[in-house]
Structure formats: structure tokens, C-alpha cells
Amino acid sequence: MMRKILFATILTCIAAIASAVTKTEADELYEKDKFADAANAYETLLKTNGEAAEVYYNLGNCYYKMDNIPLAILNYERAILLSPGDSDIRANLALARGKTVDKVVPPSEMFFVTWWRDLSNSMSMDAWEILGIISFLLVLIGAALYMFWTQLWVRKVGIYGAMLFFVITVISNLAALSQNLGLKNRNTAIILAPSVTVKSSPSDRSTDLFLIHEGSKVEILDGSMKEWMEVKFEEGKQGWIPVSTAEII
Question: What kind and span of H or E run contains 206?
Fold first, then answer.
């Protein structure tokens, strides 16, 4: 009995390896304009190999070519979560969002909030972590120069350099932490249904507030219910929508 189970397991593993899709094969399908097949291949890659910004980006391109704008936006947004500093992803996301029905004008915000978001998203989490480690090492070197060197100008360079790199270390760690929290606490979603009537409460019998269309991005305020979730839209309006009409980024 055990031999049969072992043999079946081995056959299953061999079949899985044989049917595994590589990124090169998926890219070739895309280059041949076989966008549906390429999309399936990229989806398989994500399931087997885990999340990767480049794969999400290519998957978004497939859906964009297939004129499936909501899924294109969803995958571009997922790619940006992993690689927020990639200008190509942001450019394609802007193109896709330009094709949505709802043209959103986000509410104004304090300049330092915009500045911090742009700064923290200028590099990936891994890049910020590497910068933080290098900066911390330079802090130690600067402190060592100040404490153990005899020449005054070297000591000044050491202490001022240590102060500068300490600030960079703090900023790097805060930016990496901010991105890490964004990856773990995914509280945004993309509307996939062609149109959704936003309700005043989680009930079909509640008051209709307004209509929202596919491709819109929402912030999830309350996702504790099975069939409904409370969301806030980028322009500030909020209400309840069916869970089935949106997918979390």
C-alpha cells in the first residue's frame, strides 16, 4: 500500500514539474500576441513561484491588450506594491486608469504627506533596507573616526557624517516599514464588476447612494462581513458594496 502511495506521489511530482511554466515561455506567448495564453501562464507562475512585480506587470499588460481594464489595473497595482519606484508600471497604470469611466479627483492633502509618500515609494522595500544597512555602517565608521582619530578635521567629518547617515538610516527604515505594512495590511481593492450601486448600509434594501464603475480603486474600511464591505473612494465618498464586486489588491 505504501509503495502505491509513494509511486503515485512521485508521478504527481513528475507531472507537476513537466507541466511547470517558465517566465520565458510566458513571455514568448506574449510576444506572439497570444495574450490569453500568456495571462494564464503568468497566473500559473504567480501561484507556483509566489508574487513578483515583473510577473504582475506582464500580466497587467496582457489584460490591457485584451481590453480587460479592471484586471489590468488590479495587476499593475499589485506590481507597484512590490516595486513602487518602477516608472514603467506607473506609466502603464496611468494609461489604464485613463480608460475607466469614473474620472477621480483625489481630495487635497498636506504637502508633507504627498512628499513622504513620493519619497517612500521612490524605491522598493529591499532597496530601502539595503540603504538603511549601509547608512548604519557609515554611522559607525563616522563615530569611530570622531572618537579615535586625532586630527580635528577628520573628527569633524566623522561626527557630521555620522549625523547625516543617522538621519538617512532612520528615513530608510521608516520607508521600508511603511512599504512592509502596505504589503501585509492590504486594505485597498479594485472594482471588477461593470458597475456597482453603493449602498448606505450592508443591505440590498438600503438607500442607493451613487454608482461606481469598473476599475475604480477603493479603501476598505470594514471587511469583517461575509457578503458586504464598507469602502471609501479616492474622492472621499464612502458606502457599502457587495464583496463579490471587487478584489483586494
Answer: none
Alpha helices by DSSP H, the chain? 2-19, 23-31, 35-49, 53-65, 69-82, 87-97, 111-120, 125-148, 152-184
Could you report the per-residue pLDDT of 108-162, keeping only the tens digit for each? 667 778 888 888 888 888 899 999 999 999 999 999 999 999 899 999 999 999 9
Cα separation of 172 and 92, whole Å? 27
DSSP run (H or E) holding 107: none
CB 221 within 8 A of CB 238: yes
Asked whether 177 and 132 are in contact (CB, 8 A), the reply is: no
Between helix 53-65 and helix 35-49 the angle, nearest 10°, is: 160
**Cell 456597482 found at:** 196
Distance CA 193, CA 133 (A): 44
d(CA 115, CA 113): 5
The pairing of strands 208-213 and 238-242 is: unpaired
Q: What is the C-alpha separation between 206 and 208, in angstroms, rounded?
A: 7
Q: What is the DSSP string of 110-150?
A: -HHHHHHHHHHTTS-HHHHHHHHHHHHHHHHHHHHHHHH--
Q: pLDDT tens digits, residue range 40-52?
A: 999 999 999 999 9
pLDDT in tens, 152-172: 999 999 999 999 999 999 999
Residue 23: Cβ within 10 Å count:
15
Which residues partner with 233 through β-bridges? 218
Phi, psi angles (nearest 5°) of residue 164: -60, -50
First-to-last alpha carbon distance for the chain, in angstroms, is 45
Q: What is the pTM of this model?
A: 0.80
